[in-house]
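Sequence only, no structure available. Ideas?
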Amino acid sequence: MKSPAITAALTLSLTGQYERQGTEAAEGVRLWAQEAGIRLILADDHGSRSIAVDAYAGWIDGVDLLLGPYASGLVRAVAPLAVLC
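Reply:
I predicted one. Tokens follow.
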């Protein structure tokens, strides 16, 4: 089987204060990636800005598509990194 041409990455809160929303979003994103044939990298940010920022900073040069995390505070924390892409 041919490997996916596109790699997408994101953090979601699979634990912590946004766990419910994060796990529901993760299920949808996994289904999307599977159907689209996209390799998905999904990390648990635990609802922590610093964990999310560290994850996205590590992906800047290694993925084709960055998807934002859940919760406006987390999005605001990682958004400046998108400028580096």
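The beta strands are 7-12, 39-44, 65-66.
Hope that gets you unstuck.
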